[in-house]
Write a structure and sequence with these properties.
Blueprint (H helix, E strand, L loop, with lengths): L11 H4 L5 H6 L7 E2 L8 E8 L3 H12 L4 E4 L16 E2 L5 H5 L6 H11 L6 H9 L1 H10 L21 E2 L9 H4 L6 E2 L8 H16 L2 E3 L3 E7 L5 E8 L2 E13 L8 H7 L1 H4 L3 E2 L8 H8 L4 E2 L4 E3 L13 E3 L13 H11 L5 E4 L14 E5 L2 H8 L5 H13 L22 E5 L8 E4 L2 E2 L6 E3 L5 E7 L17 H18 L5
Helix pairs in contact: 3-9, 3-16, 5-6
Length: 510
């Protein structure tokens, strides 16, 4: 099996010949891995084959190429960039990055590790978190080296900067209980471009670097099945191009990096039912779980398939955080200043997808917005409760208890910061719909293949599958539910994508 692919790049003519008629007839999406004996000849050879063109795939391709491998990256769509290009482009980084130091922000690896490991879900991947935190400053230097622009500007406003600021508090660091578990620090590193363009700018830089290094990119090529040698090693992939099925050999390794499964309704209902009814499936159009399914078909273990982010972005403006969020029992269940991924998770996973934001005259949305629609308006809290059919007296008791303590600058239940803490008083009172089905409620999946810190895919016995690597949302990585900070996903994609690419380039098997 040769890895020499030639430097003229992949061509349709070379892909459109060679797979045996018998094998081609048996190939179907979602079927078991194909034995090498069924492939009579390869249509294409490469060293490392990367499947997917988001941040994980392109970072893997860059590092594999720098490690000396011939690299072919394929993408099922005609547009490169994946879900990463749709994102804010935030990378969660800390421990003293160059940008933090330039802005005189104090942070440490220990405090970053405490935040990620203690504030999120139970039993997180501590080995990956530790490595990520220890390598965070170096990783930011790598991002700079790829040509991603960052400005020496910090904002303390909540939410993704719409200006050109590059550093902000991107998560729930300052809300309780996080602020008592780890010292808060701004760790959201976002390209210094105005508007919601950070993800697009990040991917432009990474793709440009990959091309400059000689990574060959081919769109409209859909991977369908992995090909296995008799000893279990992954030899290559069967793909579809222009309706024809062809075989690509990967002499060193295959890197699965083709996204989650938020657009696969059947998979979503089966694995992550809490995300099924969220109103906005957030991800690349082809996030159908193909990479995860191919890995499982080759014997890989999948982890945390029920997890993902469910986001209720009630701010900006920050003034609404002086309101209260209640459940179907008319009771508060969270600090309203929590990061919108934490709030969304609480609603989708723990409140049956139903919640309401209760505001008064000063905390109400001052201008038109259509993320959350008003369901009730009245001059008294009792009338609001009646319109929403809350249990008798429940909302009134909740507001009375909240107001009593807020007047003294205290929130015994959820310790909301004093900046947002005051009694609800002054009509009109309004109730805003925060339900997963009716509000603007983006969702994305986090579950995926079980991998080592170097991206090697593991089976259910904890053994590596030789020649198979994965990164990004094809894996169960650092992001868990609840999603505690913007940038953990893209950070995970780029950081562990790099490691998977390097491991694949040297053909690591242990």
């Amino acid at each position: 099996m040769t890895e020499n692919a030639g430097e003229d790049g992949i061509t349709r003519r070379r892909l459109l010949g060679g797979l045996s008629a018998t094998a081609a007839a048996t190939v179907a999406s979602g079927a078991a891995a194909l034995p090498r004996s069924a492939v009579k000849s390869w249509d294409m050879h490469t060293g490392v084959l990367v499947i997917g063109s988001g941040a994980a795939g392109v970072s893997a391709a860059i590092e594999a190429r720098l490690a000396g491998a011939n690299v072919l990256l394929i993408e099922s769509l005609s547009q490169f960039g994946g879900s990463s290009a749709m994102s804010g482009g935030v990378v969660y980084a800390g421990g003293g990055t160059a940008l933090q130091k330039a802005l005189k922000v104090e942070d440490s690896v220990e405090q970053m590790y405490r935040f990620i490991s203690l504030v999120g879900g139970v039993h997180p991947p501590l080995d990956k978190i530790q490595l990520y935190c220890e390598g965070s400053a170096e990783h930011f230097d790598w991002l700079l080296a790829q040509g991603i622009p960052y400005t020496d500007k910090l904002t303390l406003a909540k939410g993704l900067p719409m200006g050109d600021e590059s550093l902000y508090f991107s998560g729930t660091e300052q809300a309780w209980p996080a602020r008592e578990l780890a010292t808060p620090a701004p760790r959201g590193h976002v390209p210094g471009v105005e508007g919601m363009n950070g993800g697009r700018r990040l991917m432009q830089a990474l793709l440009s670097q990959a091309k400059a290094l000689g990574v060959r990119l081919q769109g409209r090529v859909r991977a369908q099945r992995l090909v296995t040698e008799s000893d279990g090693r992954i030899a290559g992939v069967i793909v579809t191009l222009d309706g024809e099925q062809r075989a690509i050999a990967a002499g060193r390794g295959v890197v699965l990096a083709c996204g989650g499964f938020i657009h696969n309704r059947e998979m979503l209902r089966r694995y992550a039912p809490q995300l099924y009814d969220c109103s906005v499936p957030w991800g690349n159009a082809d996030d159908h779980g193909d990479g995860i399914n191919m890995g499982i078909a080759a014997g890989a273990e999948a982890l945390r398939m029920h997890e993902g982010f469910a986001i209720a972005p009630i701010y900006p403006p920050e003034s609404v955080l002086s309101g209260i969020v209640v459940n179907a029992s008319g009771q508060r269940f969270i600090s309203e200043e929590s990061y919108h991924g934490v709030l969304g998770d609480a609603i989708a996973y723990h409140q049956q997808g139903r919640a309401w934001l209760i505001t008064d005259r000063d905390s109400s949305y001052a201008s038109h917005q259509d993320n959350f629609l008003p369901l009730a308006e009245a001059s008294t809290i009792g009338d609001i409760a009646a319109q929403l059919a809350f249990p008798k007296g429940a909302l009134q008791q909740t507001v009375a208890y909240y107001n009593l303590h807020a007047a003294n600058g205290d929130d015994p239940m959820f310790r909301k910061s004093r900046a947002y803490l005051r009694p609800l008083q002054g009509p009109p009172y309004k109730a805003w719909d925060l339900s997963t089905t009716q509000a603007f409620f983006p969702a994305h999946t986090f579950g995926g293949l079980h991998t080592t810190v170097d991206g090697q895919v593991l089976n259910s016995f904890g053994e590596t599958i030789p020649g198979l690597y994965a990164a990004g949302r094809n894996t169960a990585g650092i992001p868990t539910a609840p999603y505690i900070a913007s940038g953990l996903s893209v950070g995970d994609c780029t950081f562990f994508g790099r490691r998977a690419g390097r491991a694949a380039a040297v053909g690591a098997t242990a």
